[in-house]
Amino acid sequence: MRIFNFIKLIVFLSFALLSFVGCEEKIDHSRYGLASEDTSQLIAGAAFFENFTVNGDGTTTDSISGLTWKTCTQGQTFSGTASHYDCQGSAGSVTNPGTYGAKQLQYCSVNLESCNTLGIPQTLTAGSGASSEAYDSCASDGTAGGGWRVANFLELKYLSSNSRNFMILKFPNTIDDYYWSSTANEQDASGKTARAVSFSLSNFGDDESFTKITRYFVRCVR
């Protein structure tokens, strides 16, 4: 697709400019969904995401970890082929117009441990006496044969450990916000919170704990 070829060109030009310009003012890439990343981030990102293959059926496989990810955020629709693809949907809500159809989902319908195991790590389940929109969304997803689950905390940290610019080439229209992990916050004795990881421009890869009834975005893996 033209937009992804354009993004690749922007990333390449950024690398070239950083190599030759030095202390000159950097280009503002934020309007293209790109972060201002230094040379080391771009090199690391290029090497890291080289191992990710978009399969053209709504899935993306990482040959190093062996994980297969859904290419699109839950609620979005995959379109295209293995070489030309996008994640599409409606333009989003008035308050969050850039969601491209992505849905914000609750970790659990109550701020209790009703939707996660009690052992370490505390992992999202179908719920007992409560329900989990996040769990149900992945578990019921039939993309490429199904078998999906909400990505856990370490998996999301892994996915966000390098260049965001190269990440969005493999996972287009990733939302500039937090994504729920399947991992509850075991340090919270009250059982009210679970862990989420940021995929935003400003704090890519940061993590935070939020109350379980809060709605955030979800990425599925298997």
Outline the structure in words.
By secondary structure, the protein is of the alpha+beta class. 23% of the residues lie in helices and 20% in strands. The chain has 5 helices and 12 strands. A hairpin with an 8-residue loop joins strand 8 and strand 9. The longest helix has 20 residues. It starts with a helix and ends with a strand. It holds the Pfam family Lcl_C.
Number of helices: 5
Let me know the largest β-sheet: 3 strands, antiparallel
Q: Biggest sheet: strands side by side, in what order?
A: 1-2-3
| Outline type | globular
- How far is it from the N-terminal to the C-terminal residue, by CA? 27 Å
Order of helices and strands: HHEEEEEEHEHHEEEEE
Share of residues in strands: 15-25%
In helices, the fraction of residues equals 10-25%
The gyration radius over C-alpha positions equals 18 Å
Structural class: alpha+beta
Kindly report the average pLDDT value: 87
